[in-house]
């Protein structure tokens, strides 16, 4: 019998009694297996197929054996349970480990959180401090820049004021010179008129004497007495004694062929400010001095001085002389020339073949572009050399240029373009002036060959105390005066010369006088000028003036920021001039300036305290006991509080 029809069977329809399957005719009750695990039966003309159903397996690695339709488990159920249990335990252990790690992280985070917060706060505070410091530095820098600008403007105004004063003085001098010249011209004209009158009177007297002699001769011949005649007396204004014919020692001798306006006095000829366009031909062999200043002379020919060979002094300043305008043999015939002034011309090089007798040479306010080793050759007798206001610098001044000047004592190189002290200065040098250059540094060996130096002026440059070498001039035994005014100093420089007597530091940014800075000096500093700086009550220490108490003669501390009288002043027994004006001083203690126990005559001649905040009513009567006279104390005016 056929099994009942199951839903899983697949039935194919065919002819009655036969079955057709995939193109094949199957007889009734025929069975076949078209594929593995499927069995088909032909019954009643229908094909019934049944697929073997496999039970569900629960294993990790099922496998279907060869010839079988359903997979079977390769492992038993017990190992499978063990594996599942081990897997669950591993998962649980891992979860527990993760939980422990999370808990540990939370605990550590909880422990470190205060430290982290503190670190964050510290970092925040550090950033705030950094910002505050930066802001404060910026404000200080801005304040310093504003102060520098203000100081620079003040110095500029001061310089303009000084220039205006100098200009006014120059105008006044020129006006006075013009008046003097007018008076001299008028006097010259009067002298000329008087000479003419005297000549006329003398001629008239001679004529009368001749007539009288003729009359006497005629009387002798005729044996008759001559007719008496009363001589005509000259007018009082015409008869002048010879002593009155020369006034002020100036007489213009006629017949010399001098340009109009020239004045000849004894052996000096002055032809200044006459608009002369050429060198005048002169023939005065005894002439010693010639001044042609302030004209328009543009050349000096070779024969210019042939008629005046004994000249000792020539002044050709303020003309239009260029380097090619002076003939190379113009000065060769002058065997006695001592002084030559060529200031205010257009010279680009030092003239050639200057006389070896020269002792003073001035070529300031020209256009000198350099000085080479031959510029001063043969001038071994030169004592004074002035080259101010030119285009000189260390790049165009040969270090061997000054070597021939074995007698040079006085050298002026101000208002040029030097950035350092020029090299090759002669050992004989006594005074060196380098003001108004661009000097930034004083190197250690720059003055090694000039041990005789007595005066050095370096004002209006760009020096600060850090750019002055410690041994630059410490061991100089003759250096007595140094001018470092109007530079960029913030401290009084250390390592100053032992022999220093006069120190000028006006118009810097000095804020402090270090202690013992003058203690090594012998015999001691006498003149100290610190006006127009930034000194306050903290900038002067009790030891600042140690070493100068017995030597100081003049001390200038005016135009600073002092609130009190600096310590140590009452110990300066030889002080004559003290300037404390234009500060912020509010009181004068009894013993701050004068020591009441000191015996002897008063030493202070001038004491200036005006333009402070001092109430004169609160000053002790003995505060000024060392002042020479009450009128020597200047207290008015004072600033208002």
From TrEMBL:
Listed GO biological process terms: extracellular matrix organization; positive regulation of cell-substrate adhesion
Domain VWFC: 17-74
Basic residues: bias regions: 81-92
Signal peptide (UniProt feature, chain positions): none
Span list, region Disordered: 81-109, 203-257
Superkingdom to which the source organism belongs: Eukaryota
A Pfam family of this chain: VWC
UniProt keywords, alphabetically: Leucine-rich repeat, Repeat
InterPro entries noted in UniProt: ECM2, Leu-rich_rpt, Leu-rich_rpt_typical-subtyp, LRR_dom_sf, VWF_dom
GO molecular function: collagen V binding; heparin binding
GO CC list: extracellular matrix
Claim: Transport is one of the keywords in the record: no
Name listed for the protein in its UniProt record: (spotted green pufferfish) hypothetical protein
Species, as recorded: Tetraodon nigroviridis (Spotted green pufferfish)
